[in-house]
Specification:
By secondary structure, the chain is an all-alpha fold. The chain contains two helices and no strands.
């Protein structure tokens, strides 16, 4: 059960990250850069947890 919750969380974060990238590309708005890097860190942490299970 924990694995499926982690996987779902990982997918949601990946989709949020993709949305952020699309916003950055379309608007050229630098306001989202910090948030984007924060999401990258969250995705990396989730992947590490997922791989350790």
């Amino acid at each position: 059960m924990k694995t499926s919750i982690t996987t779902a969380n990982m997918l949601l974060r990946a989709m949020e990250f993709e949305t952020m990238l699309n916003v950055l590309n379309s608007e050229g708005n630098m306001m989202y850069v910090d948030r984007t890097y924060s999401l990258l860190g969250d995705i990396q942490d989730s992947l590490l947890i997922w791989c350790e299970q």
